[in-house]
Amino acid sequence: MQAGRKPNIKNRVEEATEAAVTAFALEQPAFGQVRVSNDEMLRTCGLGKVEWVPLSPVKEKIYEQFPKLPAFLLDTPAFVTELMGVTYYCHLNRLIDELFVDEPEVQIRLKELLDEITIDEVAHVGQRRNFIGPTGMRVSKWLVKPFYTMFFNDIPEIGILFDVNKMIRDGESFDFNQLPDYIIEKSWIPSYCKV
Questions:
Q1: What is the pLDDT of residue 173?
Q2: What pTM was estimated for this model as a whole?
Q3: Quick one: which of 64, 78, 81, 195 has the most CB atoms within 10 Å?
Q4: What is the spatial distance between Cα 35 and Cα 24, in angstroms, rounded to a whole number?
Q5: What whole-number distance in Å separates Cα of residue 13 and Cα of residue 84?
Q6: Is residue 1 assigned to a domain?
């Protein structure tokens, strides 16, 4: 943190949540924030024994090589992958409303966890947006459909739970200002993207 700057208390989660996530992250450094929150979401739904399937060797190599690309090749695809996460989380938020309408405590807890993830992912989209400029934005609109299709087709449940074509349209027309106000307030979005 820079000298003279104070942490933004509005961006903090409850101390118990922060302590649990920090403890788990220290115990399992290979797991990221999203993975930790997803694990807690699964436990909240009574699915605590779900096992993560490892990537195939080919996909693992692709994921290893992706960050090694030069910035001019990496920045726009990275923006689209972050955008795909935000699109997915926004659709998942609506699905939680539908699926857990009769279980308000579970619904509230899942949405709290999902909001933490979404706020972080929105900041990633904002950060990536800074690196791509107008040409990168045009290219990103072309990449949304093939990237979303390729990724979501790899997860059979996505086609059952979500309208992938709607997710693609939402990705192509993404606007930070269409996010809920509380997400915008707690996340980081470039000033030139705000109304």
A1: 95
A2: 0.73
A3: 78
A4: 11
A5: 24
A6: no
Which string of DSSP letters, residue by residue, matches the chain? Answer: --TT----GGG---HHHHHHHHHHHHH-TTS-HHHHHHHHHHHHTT-TT--PPPPPHHHHHHHHHGGGS-HHHHHHHHHHHHHHHHHHHHHHHHHHHHHTTT-HHHHHHHHHHHHHHHHHHHHHHHHHHHHHHHHHHHHHHHHHHHHHHHHHHTSHHHHHHS-HHHHHHHHHT--GGGS-HHHHHHS---GGG--
pLDDT tens, residue by residue, 131-187 = 898 999 999 999 999 999 998 888 878 888 899 999 999 999 999 999 999 999 999
Domain assignment present for 10: no
Question: Residue type for 131, please?
Answer: F
Report angle CA 80, 84, 90 to the nearest 5 degrees.
140
The residue type found at 104 is P
Which residue type occupies 63? Y
Range of the structural domain that residue 63 is part of = 55-193
Domain membership flag for residue 41:
no
In a domain, residue 9? The reply is no
pLDDT in tens, 85-95: 999 999 999 99
